[in-house]
Amino acid sequence: MCSVDIKKEQKMRRIILLFLLSFVFGQNEISVKEIIQEMDNNLNAKSRVLTSKMVVHGRRTSRTIESKNWVVGTDQAFTEYLSPPREAGTKMLKVGNKLWTYSPQTDRVIQISGHMLRQSVMGSDMSYNDMMEDQPLMDRYATTLEGSVIIDGRDYWIIFMDAKVKGLSYPKRRAWIDKEYFLPTKEELYAKSGKLLKTATMDGIKKVQGRWFPSRYLFKDELKRTSKGTEWIIDEIEFDSDIPESRFSKVMLRK
Amino acid sequence: MFRFVLKGILRDRSRSLFPIIVVSLIVALVIFNRGFLVGSMNGMFKDTAVISSGHVKVMTHAYQKESQLMPNDLALMDVDEILKDLEIKYPNYFWSPKISFAGLLDLPDEHGDTKSQGPVMAYGVDFLSSNSRQFELWELEKRIVLGRMIKDPTDALVGHKLADKLGLSLGDQVTYIGTTMNNAFTTFNFTVVGTFNLGMGPLDKQMMLVDIEGARMALDMDNAASEILGFMHDLYYNDDASIEIRNEFNTFHSDTTDLFRSSMIALRDANQMGTMIDLVDWSVFIILGIFLFIAMIVLWNMGIMSGLRRYGEIGVRLAMGETKGQVYRSLILESTIIGTIGTIIGTCIGLPLTYYVQAVGIDYSAAFENLNSTTMIMSSVFYTQVTPDLYYIGIIPGVLATVFGTMLAGRAIYKREMAQLFKELET
Predict the structure, then answer these.
(1) How far is CA A36 from the centre of its chain?
(2) How many domains does chain B have?
(3) φ/ψ of residue B146, rounded to 5
(4) What is the tens place of the pLDDT at every residue in B381-403?
């Protein structure tokens, strides 16, 4: 073979390699976006109404707290506690960064300062934001695909998310996303410094209104040395239902 | 001889007046100083004991490890049974459960919206039990500035400075915002029935006192308590006794696998109080020792000066035929009488003064205003304390030092040469 042919062949190889590389990388970038989009489609909705149980595993005993939530995006949320008797009738309203609480024992509506939104709900490992927020991840995070992994026979993407807006509870997070359900069955939630704040897992995945959704979360506050975690069991959930604006008014707290 | 010496003292005022005044003042000072030191130190321990540690304190082992965080999820449960057990086993102490908690205090306006809000540090104390001594321990009769004592579980006494800061008035309903023993969010209404001033600087700025039943309702702590405090019946802290029962109790409750086993600490174990107690013991000993030593030097010197001043008189008495022993003994008797009179007068001045400051106290609040440490709870009003030894402690400087000084000064009598006496007297 003459040297001209060899050069041509090498050139062709380079072109094919470049084409393949660009295809692979381009494909990945699209894939990550698609993955997150699919995940958001499953987890987020215009609104949601849910009845749930929170099982708080304390250092001595476990308590179950039942509540009903009405959530629209990240700015509007209303929670009414249904049981146990001491908590029944307690209501919470979140509008933007403001949080009001009503307790029938005191018959008072009290505004709680904004930083409380990151505090524990009823002694659990969940914050008010964990429970009340519903906003697509796509809008809040820049995402990077770190790889794939098979755990217990199921295939997952590992995606790292870095906040692109300020003021998020978890500026960094890493998610193990099930390739079949497009759900983050395991998540690690980090502070800006990279310190692990919480871990969250989900299971009991079932189809609800045409989307895959977990029926049980397990949150663990990694900053609480002795935490045994909190289960959040979703008994009923309804997506995109019409919630009247009046639901998110302070008047509803006393009703 | 006694009458002769007494007449001499009464008739020669230069011999009696100044020495008696000096002895009286020194004795009064020694008594007051001792009363002040003991009073301040005991006051300091008592305030720490009442507010924080008791003479001994029982809590769960897990709570003890995190006690700075007031982790009521680790509180003692079935408190009534524990109390019964403690009362039977340690009858020299009386026991009282307490709940320590913190949160926000919220004052509503006429529409029920928040008018003012501030952090609060609260104690649920057993004020309303029939045999409770907590009113006496907290000295609320003299510490309540406005209003009345707690009569109902939902009554609250609020620190005078906190009430000022939040604009609270008597009869106001305030809402406590915090967490229950299960760490759940809670709100509970208390009625402000009085304000108090503990005279403890930073604590007064954010403190609220409620009955333990009120605290239990607010924090969902039925028959539970953060701690059970034990006090000696006479309220004097006895370090050795406290250490002994602490060791005995902890030996009995030594199952290390049980995080929630009861655990006892003595006052010396709380907030580095042990170092403080040892330091105080030594300080009282050293300060009193130095003070007594100086007092003795002064009185001794006074005896020597008196002996020198009366050099001529002694010479005449010796020349007239009195033996050296007789002169020496008469001087000692004289100083004994002066010392005794001075001690009695000094005790009569020092004791009422000590009693007065014991009742009224000396207020150092202005000096303590800027201290922010709450680790060591310290009253800014110091009280003296009249103890039995104050009735006789004056004898040491008053009589013994005076007589000792005279004895040393009187040795000069024996050095006088009889043959030289008239020559000395001529000059």
Answers:
(1) 12
(2) 2
(3) -135, 150
(4) 778 888 888 899 888 888 887 88
Pick from B286, B271, B282, B250: which is nearest to B47 by CA? B271
Distance of residue B188 Cα from the nearest chain A Cα, in angstroms: 6
Rounded alpha-carbon distances, angstroms, from residue B405 to B267, B305, B324, B393, B399: 43, 10, 18, 18, 10
**A203 closest CA partner among A189, A188, A193, A218:** A218
Instruction: Tell me the residue type at B221.
Output: M
Question: How many CA atoms lie less than 13 Å away from B81 in the CB half-sphere?
Answer: 4
Q: How far is B128 from chain A (nearest CA, A)?
A: 23
Please give the structure tokens belonging to residue A235: 């008994």
- pLDDT band, residue B421 (cuts 50/70/90): low
Report the residue from A63, A107, A122 with minimal CB separation from B185.
Answer: A122
Q: Which of B187, B221, B236 represents a domain boundary (last residue)? A: B236
Higher pLDDT, B126 or A132: B126
If we measure between CA atoms, which residue out of A250, A33, A54, A156 comes closest to residue B185? A54
**Coil, strand, or helix at residue B147?**
strand
Whether B29 and B112 map to the same domain: the answer is no
* Single-letter amino acid code for the residue at A200: A
Domain of residue B391 covers: 2-46+276-426
Is B73 at the interface with chain A, CB within 8 A?
A: yes
B15 and B120 assigned to the same domain:
no
**Is B260–A60 a contact, with Cβ atoms under 8 angstroms apart?**
yes
Strand segments, DSSP code E, in B14-147 are 56-60, 93-108, 114-125, 144-147
Burial track B202-215 (b if 16+ CB lie within 10 A, e otherwise): bbbbbbbbbbbbbb
Chain B residue with minimal CA distance to A54? B184
Considering the domain architecture, whether residues B116 and B35 belong to the same structural domain is answered as: no
- pLDDT under 70: residue ranges of chain A: 1-30, 113-116, 132-134
CB A118 within 8 A of CB A129: yes
State whether B106 and A86 contact (CB < 8 Å).
Answer: no
Cis upstream peptide for B397 (omega within 30°): no
Same domain, B226 and B280: no
Phi, psi of B342 (to 5 degrees): -60, -40
**Rounded distance, CA B355 to CA B187, Å?**
46
Residue A9 lies in a domain: no
The answer on B223 and B164 residing in a single domain is: yes
Residue A96 sits in a domain whose CATH number is 2.50.20.10
Residue-wise pLDDT tens digits, B70-103: 899 899 999 999 999 999 999 999 999 999 999 9
Give the contacts of B152 (CB within 8 A, at least 6 positions apart): B128, B191, B211, B214
Residue A25 domain-assigned? Answer: no
Please indicate, yes or no, if residue B266 is contained in any of the structural domains: no
From the list A239, A205, A235, A200, the residue with the least C-alpha distance to A66 is: A235
| Helix (DSSP H) and strand (DSSP E) numbers for chain A | 4, 15
Could you tell me if A90 lies within 8 Å of chain B, comparing CB atoms? yes
pTM: 0.70
Same domain, B222 and B104: yes
- Does B104 share its domain with B190? yes
Q: Pick the residue from chain B with its C-alpha nearest to A122.
A: B184
For the beta carbon of residue A3, count every other beta carbon within 10 angstroms. Answer: 7
> What ipTM score was computed for the predicted complex, to two decimals?
0.71
Nearest alpha carbon to residue B292 among B22, B53, B31:
B31
Kindly state whether residues B67 and B209 are assigned to the same domain: yes
A217 within a domain of the structure (yes/no): yes
Shortest distance, CA B383 to any CA of chain A (angstroms): 42
* Residue whose entry in the numeric block shows the structure tokens 């049974």: B81
